Fold:
Amino acid sequence: MVVLLGLATLTLASGLVGIAVTSVWPTQVSTQSYAATVRLSAEPDQLSTLHAPTLFGDLDLRFDGVLPAPGVNAVARVQDRITSVLATRDLSVSALKPMPAEIDDAVATTITQVGGKFAGGVLLTCVLVAFATRHWRSRDEPLRPWRRAVAIPALSLLLALTGTAGAAWSTFRPDRLESVGADGLLGYVRSNTAILADVEARSAQAQPYVKNMLALSAALQDKFVPAELATPASVKILLVSDIHGANAYPLMKQIVETEGITAVVDTGDLVNFGRVQEAEAAGLFTGIRSLGVPYLFVRGNHDAASPTDDALVERMTQVPGVVVLEPRRHAYTLATVGGLRIGGFNDPRWFGDTGGGPATQVPAAEAFGEAMRELRAGRATTAQESSTRGATASPSGGTPAPLTSGAVSGSTGASSSGAPPDSSSVAAAASSAAAADAERGLDVLVTHEPAAAEASGDAGIRLHGHMHSTALQGNRIQIGTFTGGGVVSHYIQGADGAELAGQPYAFDVLSFGGDCRLQTLTRYSYRDLLEGRPVYDDVRAINGRAIQSPLPSTGRVCRADAPVTLQDVRATTPDTSATPTP
Structure:
Protein backbone atom coordinates (compact mmCIF):
# COMPACT_ATOMS: atom_id res chain seq x y z
CA MET A 1 0.00 0.00 0.00
CA VAL A 2 2.83 2.40 0.89
CA VAL A 3 4.54 1.61 -2.41
CA LEU A 4 1.34 2.27 -4.40
CA LEU A 5 0.76 5.52 -2.53
CA GLY A 6 4.30 6.62 -3.24
CA LEU A 7 3.95 5.67 -6.89
CA ALA A 8 0.71 7.66 -7.26
CA THR A 9 2.16 10.67 -5.44
CA LEU A 10 5.31 10.75 -7.54
CA THR A 11 3.31 10.32 -10.77
CA LEU A 12 1.05 13.23 -9.88
CA ALA A 13 3.92 15.41 -8.66
CA SER A 14 6.04 14.80 -11.75
CA GLY A 15 3.06 15.60 -13.97
CA LEU A 16 2.49 18.89 -12.16
CA VAL A 17 6.19 19.76 -12.51
CA GLY A 18 5.97 19.01 -16.23
CA ILE A 19 2.98 21.32 -16.55
CA ALA A 20 4.81 24.00 -14.56
CA VAL A 21 7.78 23.77 -16.96
CA THR A 22 5.50 24.48 -19.93
CA SER A 23 4.16 27.51 -18.07
CA VAL A 24 7.54 28.93 -17.04
CA TRP A 25 8.99 28.14 -20.46
CA PRO A 26 6.02 28.61 -22.81
CA THR A 27 5.97 27.62 -26.46
CA GLN A 28 5.71 30.23 -29.21
CA VAL A 29 3.88 29.22 -32.38
CA SER A 30 2.95 31.39 -35.32
CA THR A 31 1.25 31.58 -38.69
CA GLN A 32 1.70 34.22 -41.35
CA SER A 33 -0.53 36.71 -39.58
CA TYR A 34 -0.87 35.42 -36.00
CA ALA A 35 1.20 34.16 -33.11
CA ALA A 36 0.32 32.43 -29.86
CA THR A 37 1.96 31.66 -26.55
CA VAL A 38 0.96 28.15 -25.45
CA ARG A 39 1.09 26.71 -21.95
CA LEU A 40 -0.45 23.73 -20.20
CA SER A 41 -2.70 24.35 -17.22
CA ALA A 42 -3.59 22.21 -14.21
CA GLU A 43 -6.30 24.56 -12.92
CA PRO A 44 -9.43 22.50 -12.19
CA ASP A 45 -11.74 24.71 -14.27
CA GLN A 46 -9.44 24.44 -17.29
CA LEU A 47 -8.90 20.68 -17.37
CA SER A 48 -9.77 19.17 -20.77
CA THR A 49 -10.29 22.71 -22.11
CA LEU A 50 -8.66 24.74 -24.86
CA HIS A 51 -8.68 28.29 -23.43
CA ALA A 52 -7.88 31.19 -25.76
CA PRO A 53 -8.06 34.59 -24.04
CA THR A 54 -8.06 37.71 -26.24
CA LEU A 55 -8.64 41.42 -25.79
CA PHE A 56 -12.21 40.96 -26.99
CA GLY A 57 -13.23 38.03 -24.81
CA ASP A 58 -12.29 34.45 -24.06
CA LEU A 59 -12.95 31.41 -26.22
CA ASP A 60 -13.28 28.05 -24.43
CA LEU A 61 -13.56 24.71 -26.19
CA ARG A 62 -14.41 22.09 -23.56
CA PHE A 63 -13.95 18.37 -24.26
CA ASP A 64 -15.31 15.32 -22.43
CA GLY A 65 -12.49 12.81 -22.58
CA VAL A 66 -12.53 9.56 -20.63
CA LEU A 67 -9.70 10.88 -18.42
CA PRO A 68 -9.11 14.55 -17.56
CA ALA A 69 -6.31 16.06 -19.64
CA PRO A 70 -4.25 19.14 -18.79
CA GLY A 71 -5.83 22.32 -20.11
CA VAL A 72 -4.24 24.19 -23.00
CA ASN A 73 -3.91 27.95 -22.60
CA ALA A 74 -3.18 29.70 -25.91
CA VAL A 75 -2.82 33.51 -25.74
CA ALA A 76 -3.21 34.71 -29.32
CA ARG A 77 -1.92 37.95 -30.82
CA VAL A 78 -1.49 39.42 -34.30
CA GLN A 79 1.84 39.72 -36.08
CA ASP A 80 3.34 43.16 -36.75
CA ARG A 81 2.98 42.68 -40.50
CA ILE A 82 -0.80 42.66 -40.14
CA THR A 83 -0.83 46.46 -40.05
CA SER A 84 -0.14 46.70 -43.77
CA VAL A 85 -2.61 43.94 -44.53
CA LEU A 86 -5.36 45.73 -42.63
CA ALA A 87 -4.92 48.77 -44.83
CA THR A 88 -6.33 46.80 -47.74
CA ARG A 89 -9.73 48.04 -48.80
CA ASP A 90 -12.70 45.65 -48.70
CA LEU A 91 -10.79 43.27 -46.47
CA SER A 92 -12.91 40.26 -45.54
CA VAL A 93 -12.95 38.10 -42.44
CA SER A 94 -12.43 34.96 -44.52
CA ALA A 95 -9.24 36.48 -45.96
CA LEU A 96 -7.85 36.93 -42.44
CA LYS A 97 -8.46 33.36 -41.32
CA PRO A 98 -5.31 31.19 -41.19
CA MET A 99 -5.13 28.50 -43.84
CA PRO A 100 -5.79 24.91 -42.70
CA ALA A 101 -2.16 24.00 -43.45
CA GLU A 102 -0.98 26.84 -41.19
CA ILE A 103 -3.21 25.63 -38.37
CA ASP A 104 -1.96 22.06 -38.82
CA ASP A 105 1.67 23.19 -38.70
CA ALA A 106 1.01 25.27 -35.59
CA VAL A 107 -0.69 22.31 -33.88
CA ALA A 108 2.20 20.00 -34.80
CA THR A 109 4.73 22.49 -33.41
CA THR A 110 2.70 22.85 -30.22
CA ILE A 111 2.51 19.09 -29.70
CA THR A 112 6.25 18.63 -30.28
CA GLN A 113 7.53 21.52 -28.19
CA VAL A 114 4.97 21.51 -25.37
CA GLY A 115 5.17 17.73 -25.17
CA GLY A 116 8.95 17.85 -25.06
CA LYS A 117 9.00 20.42 -22.27
CA PHE A 118 6.42 18.47 -20.30
CA ALA A 119 8.44 15.27 -20.70
CA GLY A 120 11.60 17.10 -19.64
CA GLY A 121 9.96 18.31 -16.44
CA VAL A 122 8.64 14.83 -15.63
CA LEU A 123 12.03 13.25 -16.35
CA LEU A 124 13.92 15.78 -14.21
CA THR A 125 11.56 15.14 -11.28
CA CYS A 126 11.91 11.37 -11.50
CA VAL A 127 15.70 11.52 -11.83
CA LEU A 128 15.99 13.75 -8.74
CA VAL A 129 13.74 11.40 -6.77
CA ALA A 130 15.79 8.38 -7.89
CA PHE A 131 19.01 10.13 -6.87
CA ALA A 132 17.54 11.09 -3.49
CA THR A 133 16.23 7.55 -2.95
CA ARG A 134 19.67 6.08 -3.56
CA HIS A 135 21.48 8.49 -1.25
CA TRP A 136 18.87 8.90 1.49
CA ARG A 137 20.09 6.62 4.26
CA SER A 138 21.43 6.60 7.78
CA ARG A 139 25.15 7.16 8.34
CA ASP A 140 25.95 3.48 8.81
CA GLU A 141 23.87 2.11 5.90
CA PRO A 142 25.40 1.48 2.48
CA LEU A 143 24.08 3.18 -0.64
CA ARG A 144 21.01 1.56 -2.12
CA PRO A 145 21.60 -0.14 -5.45
CA TRP A 146 20.47 1.86 -8.48
CA ARG A 147 18.10 -0.93 -9.50
CA ARG A 148 16.05 -0.45 -6.35
CA ALA A 149 16.38 3.35 -6.36
CA VAL A 150 15.05 3.85 -9.87
CA ALA A 151 12.20 1.28 -9.86
CA ILE A 152 9.41 3.54 -8.60
CA PRO A 153 10.65 6.74 -10.36
CA ALA A 154 10.93 4.87 -13.66
CA LEU A 155 7.42 3.49 -13.34
CA SER A 156 6.14 6.95 -12.38
CA LEU A 157 7.88 8.41 -15.44
CA LEU A 158 6.17 5.86 -17.66
CA LEU A 159 2.75 6.44 -16.11
CA ALA A 160 3.01 10.24 -16.19
CA LEU A 161 4.07 10.35 -19.84
CA THR A 162 1.76 7.67 -21.24
CA GLY A 163 -1.17 8.66 -19.04
CA THR A 164 -0.99 12.33 -19.96
CA ALA A 165 -0.35 11.64 -23.64
CA GLY A 166 -3.21 9.14 -23.75
CA ALA A 167 -5.59 11.50 -21.96
CA ALA A 168 -4.68 14.36 -24.30
CA TRP A 169 -4.96 12.20 -27.42
CA SER A 170 -8.36 10.81 -26.43
CA THR A 171 -9.68 14.18 -25.24
CA PHE A 172 -8.69 16.88 -27.74
CA ARG A 173 -10.55 15.39 -30.66
CA PRO A 174 -13.48 16.85 -32.62
CA ASP A 175 -15.77 13.97 -31.71
CA ARG A 176 -15.13 14.60 -27.99
CA LEU A 177 -16.09 18.29 -28.08
CA GLU A 178 -18.64 18.93 -25.33
CA SER A 179 -19.22 22.68 -25.58
CA VAL A 180 -17.93 25.89 -27.13
CA GLY A 181 -18.15 28.89 -24.85
CA ALA A 182 -17.23 32.52 -25.37
CA ASP A 183 -17.73 35.80 -23.62
CA GLY A 184 -17.38 39.40 -24.67
CA LEU A 185 -17.37 40.17 -28.38
CA LEU A 186 -16.11 36.71 -29.34
CA GLY A 187 -19.33 35.23 -28.02
CA TYR A 188 -21.04 36.37 -31.16
CA VAL A 189 -18.86 34.19 -33.39
CA ARG A 190 -20.43 30.95 -32.22
CA SER A 191 -23.93 32.24 -32.85
CA ASN A 192 -23.12 31.22 -36.46
CA THR A 193 -21.96 32.87 -39.62
CA ALA A 194 -24.63 35.57 -39.58
CA ILE A 195 -22.44 37.60 -37.23
CA LEU A 196 -19.41 37.27 -39.47
CA ALA A 197 -21.54 38.15 -42.47
CA ASP A 198 -22.68 41.28 -40.64
CA VAL A 199 -19.06 42.23 -40.05
CA GLU A 200 -18.44 41.67 -43.75
CA ALA A 201 -21.37 43.90 -44.69
CA ARG A 202 -20.24 46.64 -42.32
CA SER A 203 -16.51 46.48 -43.00
CA ALA A 204 -16.34 50.27 -43.26
CA GLN A 205 -17.43 50.63 -39.64
CA ALA A 206 -15.80 47.51 -38.15
CA GLN A 207 -12.55 47.87 -36.30
CA PRO A 208 -9.83 45.88 -38.13
CA TYR A 209 -8.42 44.23 -35.06
CA VAL A 210 -11.86 43.04 -34.06
CA LYS A 211 -12.03 41.36 -37.46
CA ASN A 212 -8.72 39.69 -36.75
CA MET A 213 -9.85 38.22 -33.48
CA LEU A 214 -13.13 37.05 -34.99
CA ALA A 215 -11.27 35.36 -37.82
CA LEU A 216 -8.78 33.71 -35.48
CA SER A 217 -11.46 32.36 -33.14
CA ALA A 218 -13.46 31.11 -36.14
CA ALA A 219 -10.36 29.27 -37.35
CA LEU A 220 -9.95 27.60 -33.95
CA GLN A 221 -13.55 26.42 -34.06
CA ASP A 222 -13.12 25.16 -37.64
CA LYS A 223 -10.23 23.03 -36.38
CA PHE A 224 -11.93 21.43 -33.41
CA VAL A 225 -15.72 21.53 -33.96
CA PRO A 226 -16.96 18.18 -35.36
CA ALA A 227 -18.21 18.24 -38.94
CA GLU A 228 -21.75 17.25 -37.94
CA LEU A 229 -21.97 20.24 -35.58
CA ALA A 230 -20.64 22.62 -38.21
CA THR A 231 -23.37 21.51 -40.63
CA PRO A 232 -26.17 24.10 -40.86
CA ALA A 233 -29.15 23.12 -38.71
CA SER A 234 -32.32 21.95 -40.44
CA VAL A 235 -34.61 23.04 -37.60
CA LYS A 236 -33.98 25.68 -34.90
CA ILE A 237 -36.20 26.08 -31.84
CA LEU A 238 -35.93 29.23 -29.71
CA LEU A 239 -36.51 28.55 -26.00
CA VAL A 240 -37.82 31.35 -23.78
CA SER A 241 -39.49 31.51 -20.39
CA ASP A 242 -40.69 33.81 -17.63
CA ILE A 243 -41.54 36.88 -19.73
CA HIS A 244 -43.42 38.33 -16.72
CA GLY A 245 -45.26 41.07 -18.57
CA ALA A 246 -42.22 42.72 -20.18
CA ASN A 247 -42.69 43.28 -23.90
CA ALA A 248 -39.33 42.19 -25.29
CA TYR A 249 -40.87 40.80 -28.47
CA PRO A 250 -39.06 43.26 -30.78
CA LEU A 251 -35.83 41.73 -29.50
CA MET A 252 -37.27 38.22 -29.86
CA LYS A 253 -38.31 38.98 -33.44
CA GLN A 254 -34.77 40.06 -34.23
CA ILE A 255 -33.46 36.79 -32.80
CA VAL A 256 -36.00 34.82 -34.84
CA GLU A 257 -34.91 36.55 -38.04
CA THR A 258 -31.16 36.54 -37.34
CA GLU A 259 -30.95 32.93 -36.18
CA GLY A 260 -33.41 31.52 -38.74
CA ILE A 261 -35.74 30.21 -36.02
CA THR A 262 -38.35 27.61 -37.00
CA ALA A 263 -40.54 27.94 -33.90
CA VAL A 264 -40.56 29.44 -30.40
CA VAL A 265 -41.26 27.44 -27.22
CA ASP A 266 -42.38 29.44 -24.17
CA THR A 267 -42.46 27.48 -20.90
CA GLY A 268 -44.78 29.91 -19.13
CA ASP A 269 -45.14 32.84 -16.75
CA LEU A 270 -46.10 35.21 -19.54
CA VAL A 271 -47.52 37.70 -17.00
CA ASN A 272 -47.11 38.49 -13.31
CA PHE A 273 -50.60 38.47 -11.79
CA GLY A 274 -52.52 36.02 -13.98
CA ARG A 275 -54.60 38.74 -15.66
CA VAL A 276 -55.30 39.01 -19.38
CA GLN A 277 -55.50 42.79 -18.98
CA GLU A 278 -51.83 42.88 -17.98
CA ALA A 279 -50.79 41.18 -21.22
CA GLU A 280 -53.10 43.37 -23.29
CA ALA A 281 -51.73 46.55 -21.74
CA ALA A 282 -48.14 45.46 -22.38
CA GLY A 283 -48.88 44.52 -25.99
CA LEU A 284 -47.71 40.94 -25.51
CA PHE A 285 -50.28 39.36 -27.84
CA THR A 286 -49.40 41.78 -30.62
CA GLY A 287 -45.72 41.03 -30.06
CA ILE A 288 -46.26 37.29 -30.28
CA ARG A 289 -48.27 37.67 -33.48
CA SER A 290 -45.45 39.72 -35.03
CA LEU A 291 -42.93 36.87 -34.76
CA GLY A 292 -44.27 35.07 -37.82
CA VAL A 293 -43.40 31.56 -36.59
CA PRO A 294 -45.33 29.06 -34.45
CA TYR A 295 -45.32 29.96 -30.75
CA LEU A 296 -45.80 26.91 -28.50
CA PHE A 297 -46.95 27.75 -24.98
CA VAL A 298 -47.71 26.17 -21.61
CA ARG A 299 -49.13 28.08 -18.66
CA GLY A 300 -46.94 28.98 -15.69
CA ASN A 301 -47.92 29.56 -12.07
CA HIS A 302 -48.22 33.33 -12.74
CA ASP A 303 -50.60 32.85 -15.68
CA ALA A 304 -53.79 32.27 -13.69
CA ALA A 305 -55.43 34.21 -10.87
CA SER A 306 -57.25 31.25 -9.27
CA PRO A 307 -57.31 27.43 -9.52
CA THR A 308 -60.14 27.58 -12.06
CA ASP A 309 -58.96 30.61 -14.05
CA ASP A 310 -58.28 29.77 -17.72
CA ALA A 311 -58.74 33.28 -19.15
CA LEU A 312 -55.12 33.77 -20.25
CA VAL A 313 -54.96 30.33 -21.83
CA GLU A 314 -58.20 30.99 -23.72
CA ARG A 315 -56.91 34.37 -24.90
CA MET A 316 -53.65 32.80 -26.09
CA THR A 317 -55.58 30.30 -28.22
CA GLN A 318 -57.02 33.27 -30.13
CA VAL A 319 -53.60 34.72 -31.05
CA PRO A 320 -52.54 33.81 -34.61
CA GLY A 321 -49.46 31.63 -34.53
CA VAL A 322 -49.93 30.39 -30.95
CA VAL A 323 -50.26 26.70 -30.08
CA VAL A 324 -51.31 26.15 -26.46
CA LEU A 325 -50.17 22.64 -25.59
CA GLU A 326 -52.91 22.20 -22.95
CA PRO A 327 -55.76 24.45 -24.16
CA ARG A 328 -58.28 22.84 -21.77
CA ARG A 329 -57.84 20.82 -18.61
CA HIS A 330 -56.69 17.30 -19.49
CA ALA A 331 -57.02 18.10 -23.18
CA TYR A 332 -53.67 18.34 -24.95
CA THR A 333 -52.39 19.43 -28.34
CA LEU A 334 -49.38 17.67 -29.82
CA ALA A 335 -47.59 19.80 -32.41
CA THR A 336 -45.31 18.44 -35.10
CA VAL A 337 -42.99 21.28 -36.12
CA GLY A 338 -40.25 20.67 -38.65
CA GLY A 339 -40.74 16.95 -38.08
CA LEU A 340 -40.32 17.19 -34.28
CA ARG A 341 -43.18 15.98 -32.10
CA ILE A 342 -43.73 18.43 -29.22
CA GLY A 343 -46.21 18.25 -26.35
CA GLY A 344 -46.64 19.47 -22.80
CA PHE A 345 -48.96 20.49 -19.98
CA ASN A 346 -49.79 23.52 -17.87
CA ASP A 347 -48.69 24.35 -14.35
CA PRO A 348 -51.68 23.57 -12.08
CA ARG A 349 -50.69 26.36 -9.70
CA TRP A 350 -51.77 30.01 -9.90
CA PHE A 351 -50.62 33.46 -8.76
CA GLY A 352 -50.83 33.57 -4.97
CA ASP A 353 -50.73 29.79 -4.49
CA THR A 354 -47.97 29.21 -1.94
CA GLY A 355 -48.86 25.69 -0.83
CA GLY A 356 -48.16 22.19 -2.00
CA GLY A 357 -44.62 22.57 -3.29
CA PRO A 358 -43.24 20.22 -5.94
CA ALA A 359 -45.82 17.55 -5.05
CA THR A 360 -48.52 19.63 -6.77
CA GLN A 361 -46.86 18.94 -10.12
CA VAL A 362 -47.12 15.15 -9.88
CA PRO A 363 -50.88 14.77 -10.59
CA ALA A 364 -50.60 17.03 -13.64
CA ALA A 365 -47.65 15.01 -14.92
CA GLU A 366 -49.50 11.75 -14.28
CA ALA A 367 -52.62 12.98 -16.11
CA PHE A 368 -50.51 13.95 -19.14
CA GLY A 369 -48.63 10.65 -19.02
CA GLU A 370 -51.92 8.71 -18.89
CA ALA A 371 -53.22 10.61 -21.93
CA MET A 372 -50.05 9.74 -23.86
CA ARG A 373 -50.30 6.07 -22.87
CA GLU A 374 -53.94 5.95 -23.98
CA LEU A 375 -52.97 7.63 -27.24
CA ARG A 376 -50.34 4.98 -27.93
CA ALA A 377 -52.85 2.28 -27.04
CA GLY A 378 -55.43 3.80 -29.41
CA ARG A 379 -57.92 4.61 -26.65
CA ALA A 380 -57.54 8.41 -26.48
CA THR A 381 -59.90 10.71 -28.35
CA THR A 382 -57.91 12.43 -31.10
CA ALA A 383 -58.47 14.89 -33.90
CA GLN A 384 -55.91 15.57 -36.62
CA GLU A 385 -55.43 18.93 -38.35
CA SER A 386 -53.25 19.80 -41.31
CA SER A 387 -51.84 23.03 -39.94
CA THR A 388 -51.82 25.15 -36.82
CA ARG A 389 -54.88 27.24 -36.06
CA GLY A 390 -53.70 30.48 -37.57
CA ALA A 391 -50.02 29.70 -37.05
CA THR A 392 -47.53 29.83 -39.86
CA ALA A 393 -48.01 26.57 -41.69
CA SER A 394 -44.49 26.52 -43.10
CA PRO A 395 -41.92 27.94 -40.67
CA SER A 396 -39.34 30.12 -42.35
CA GLY A 397 -36.39 29.39 -40.10
CA GLY A 398 -33.62 26.86 -40.39
CA THR A 399 -32.02 25.33 -43.45
CA PRO A 400 -34.03 22.69 -45.32
CA ALA A 401 -32.19 19.40 -45.45
CA PRO A 402 -31.23 18.20 -48.94
CA LEU A 403 -33.97 15.95 -50.27
CA THR A 404 -31.96 12.80 -50.84
CA SER A 405 -32.44 9.26 -49.60
CA GLY A 406 -33.27 10.56 -46.14
CA ALA A 407 -35.47 13.60 -46.61
CA VAL A 408 -39.20 14.01 -46.53
CA SER A 409 -41.32 16.57 -44.78
CA GLY A 410 -42.00 15.94 -41.16
CA SER A 411 -43.57 12.93 -39.56
CA THR A 412 -46.72 12.95 -41.63
CA GLY A 413 -45.22 10.95 -44.44
CA ALA A 414 -46.13 13.55 -47.06
CA SER A 415 -43.35 14.18 -49.56
CA SER A 416 -42.01 17.66 -50.18
CA SER A 417 -42.41 19.48 -53.46
CA GLY A 418 -39.57 18.82 -55.85
CA ALA A 419 -38.94 15.35 -54.40
CA PRO A 420 -37.11 12.80 -56.56
CA PRO A 421 -39.15 10.05 -58.23
CA ASP A 422 -38.30 7.48 -55.58
CA SER A 423 -39.34 9.77 -52.73
CA SER A 424 -42.31 7.54 -51.88
CA SER A 425 -39.98 4.86 -50.49
CA VAL A 426 -38.01 7.51 -48.63
CA ALA A 427 -41.22 8.94 -47.22
CA ALA A 428 -42.37 5.49 -46.15
CA ALA A 429 -39.09 4.84 -44.33
CA ALA A 430 -39.21 8.22 -42.58
CA SER A 431 -42.85 7.77 -41.65
CA SER A 432 -42.11 4.33 -40.23
CA ALA A 433 -39.21 5.69 -38.15
CA ALA A 434 -41.36 8.57 -36.89
CA ALA A 435 -44.15 6.15 -35.93
CA ALA A 436 -41.68 3.97 -34.03
CA ASP A 437 -40.41 6.99 -32.12
CA ALA A 438 -43.98 8.10 -31.38
CA GLU A 439 -44.50 4.79 -29.61
CA ARG A 440 -41.57 5.61 -27.34
CA GLY A 441 -42.74 9.15 -26.55
CA LEU A 442 -42.27 12.77 -27.58
CA ASP A 443 -39.24 14.43 -29.09
CA VAL A 444 -39.71 17.47 -26.83
CA LEU A 445 -41.73 17.78 -23.61
CA VAL A 446 -42.64 21.28 -22.37
CA THR A 447 -43.56 22.10 -18.75
CA HIS A 448 -43.11 25.08 -16.44
CA GLU A 449 -41.68 23.87 -13.15
CA PRO A 450 -38.67 21.59 -12.52
CA ALA A 451 -40.72 19.09 -10.52
CA ALA A 452 -43.11 18.69 -13.46
CA ALA A 453 -40.23 17.90 -15.83
CA GLU A 454 -38.68 15.51 -13.33
CA ALA A 455 -41.98 13.65 -12.92
CA SER A 456 -42.37 13.26 -16.68
CA GLY A 457 -40.53 10.80 -18.88
CA ASP A 458 -40.87 9.38 -22.38
CA ALA A 459 -39.28 12.36 -24.12
CA GLY A 460 -35.92 12.88 -25.77
CA ILE A 461 -35.68 16.44 -24.41
CA ARG A 462 -37.54 17.91 -21.40
CA LEU A 463 -37.91 21.68 -21.03
CA HIS A 464 -38.97 23.88 -18.12
CA GLY A 465 -38.43 27.38 -16.75
CA HIS A 466 -39.68 28.91 -13.46
CA MET A 467 -36.30 29.25 -11.69
CA HIS A 468 -35.09 32.38 -13.57
CA SER A 469 -31.73 30.68 -14.09
CA THR A 470 -30.26 28.18 -16.52
CA ALA A 471 -29.33 24.60 -15.70
CA LEU A 472 -28.82 21.30 -17.49
CA GLN A 473 -29.26 17.83 -16.04
CA GLY A 474 -29.27 14.92 -18.48
CA ASN A 475 -31.96 15.67 -21.05
CA ARG A 476 -33.72 18.18 -18.77
CA ILE A 477 -33.05 21.78 -19.84
CA GLN A 478 -33.88 24.60 -17.43
CA ILE A 479 -34.49 27.84 -19.34
CA GLY A 480 -33.66 31.23 -17.82
CA THR A 481 -35.86 34.32 -17.90
CA PHE A 482 -35.93 36.06 -21.26
CA THR A 483 -36.70 39.45 -19.70
CA GLY A 484 -34.60 39.33 -16.52
CA GLY A 485 -37.73 38.47 -14.54
CA GLY A 486 -39.74 41.34 -16.00
CA VAL A 487 -40.06 44.86 -14.66
CA VAL A 488 -41.82 43.84 -11.43
CA SER A 489 -39.41 41.14 -10.28
CA HIS A 490 -36.24 42.11 -12.15
CA TYR A 491 -34.31 43.44 -9.18
CA ILE A 492 -33.18 41.19 -6.33
CA GLN A 493 -31.56 42.18 -3.05
CA GLY A 494 -27.81 41.71 -3.00
CA ALA A 495 -26.08 39.73 -0.28
CA ASP A 496 -25.63 41.29 3.14
CA GLY A 497 -27.81 44.29 2.37
CA ALA A 498 -25.97 45.23 -0.82
CA GLU A 499 -27.74 47.27 -3.49
CA LEU A 500 -30.34 45.73 -5.73
CA ALA A 501 -29.00 43.69 -8.63
CA GLY A 502 -30.76 42.92 -11.91
CA GLN A 503 -31.41 39.32 -12.86
CA PRO A 504 -29.68 38.08 -16.01
CA TYR A 505 -31.56 37.77 -19.29
CA ALA A 506 -31.30 34.44 -21.09
CA PHE A 507 -32.54 32.44 -24.04
CA ASP A 508 -31.54 29.16 -25.68
CA VAL A 509 -31.56 27.77 -29.20
CA LEU A 510 -31.96 24.07 -29.99
CA SER A 511 -30.43 23.18 -33.38
CA PHE A 512 -31.51 19.91 -34.99
CA GLY A 513 -29.97 18.18 -37.97
CA GLY A 514 -31.85 16.69 -40.89
CA ASP A 515 -31.99 13.38 -39.00
CA CYS A 516 -33.88 15.04 -36.09
CA ARG A 517 -30.91 14.61 -33.79
CA LEU A 518 -29.95 17.52 -31.57
CA GLN A 519 -26.74 19.12 -32.83
CA THR A 520 -26.29 21.84 -30.22
CA LEU A 521 -27.94 23.61 -27.34
CA THR A 522 -26.70 27.20 -27.58
CA ARG A 523 -27.17 29.23 -24.38
CA TYR A 524 -27.07 33.04 -24.44
CA SER A 525 -27.08 35.47 -21.53
CA TYR A 526 -26.90 39.25 -21.17
CA ARG A 527 -27.65 41.77 -18.42
CA ASP A 528 -28.40 45.38 -17.45
CA LEU A 529 -30.93 45.96 -20.24
CA LEU A 530 -33.40 47.78 -17.98
CA GLU A 531 -30.59 49.82 -16.48
CA GLY A 532 -29.88 51.29 -19.92
CA ARG A 533 -26.38 49.81 -20.18
CA PRO A 534 -26.81 46.37 -21.73
CA VAL A 535 -23.79 44.11 -21.34
CA TYR A 536 -23.36 40.85 -23.22
CA ASP A 537 -22.25 38.06 -20.88
CA ASP A 538 -21.49 34.94 -22.87
CA VAL A 539 -22.66 32.23 -25.22
CA ARG A 540 -22.08 28.52 -24.77
CA ALA A 541 -22.79 25.83 -27.34
CA ILE A 542 -23.27 22.36 -25.83
CA ASN A 543 -22.95 19.21 -27.90
CA GLY A 544 -26.44 17.78 -28.37
CA ARG A 545 -25.35 14.16 -28.19
CA ALA A 546 -24.77 14.66 -24.45
CA ILE A 547 -28.39 15.83 -23.98
CA GLN A 548 -30.93 14.10 -26.23
CA SER A 549 -31.95 10.68 -24.90
CA PRO A 550 -33.17 8.47 -26.42
CA LEU A 551 -31.92 9.41 -29.87
CA PRO A 552 -34.37 9.47 -32.79
CA SER A 553 -34.50 6.34 -34.91
CA THR A 554 -32.46 6.04 -38.06
CA GLY A 555 -34.48 7.28 -41.01
CA ARG A 556 -36.17 10.18 -39.26
CA VAL A 557 -36.21 13.42 -41.25
CA CYS A 558 -36.61 16.99 -39.99
CA ARG A 559 -37.03 20.00 -42.27
CA ALA A 560 -37.81 23.60 -41.44
CA ASP A 561 -40.26 23.77 -44.35
CA ALA A 562 -42.21 20.66 -43.30
CA PRO A 563 -45.96 21.20 -42.73
CA VAL A 564 -46.90 21.99 -39.15
CA THR A 565 -49.54 19.56 -37.87
CA LEU A 566 -51.56 19.43 -34.66
CA GLN A 567 -53.14 16.48 -32.93
CA ASP A 568 -55.72 17.09 -30.21
CA VAL A 569 -55.63 14.41 -27.51
CA ARG A 570 -57.96 13.88 -24.60
CA ALA A 571 -57.72 10.87 -22.31
CA THR A 572 -60.95 8.91 -22.04
CA THR A 573 -60.54 8.67 -18.26
CA PRO A 574 -58.66 11.79 -17.11
CA ASP A 575 -57.24 11.72 -13.60
CA THR A 576 -59.39 14.23 -11.71
CA SER A 577 -56.83 14.36 -8.93
CA ALA A 578 -54.72 16.57 -11.19
CA THR A 579 -57.23 19.42 -10.82
CA PRO A 580 -55.88 21.86 -8.19
CA THR A 581 -57.98 22.87 -5.26
CA PRO A 582 -57.86 26.14 -3.34
Q: What stands out?
A: The two ends are 64 Å apart (CA to CA). The chain has 17 helices and 23 strands. The first strand starts at residue 27 and ends at 30. Residues 188-211, 386-421, 575-582 have pLDDT under 50 and may be disordered.
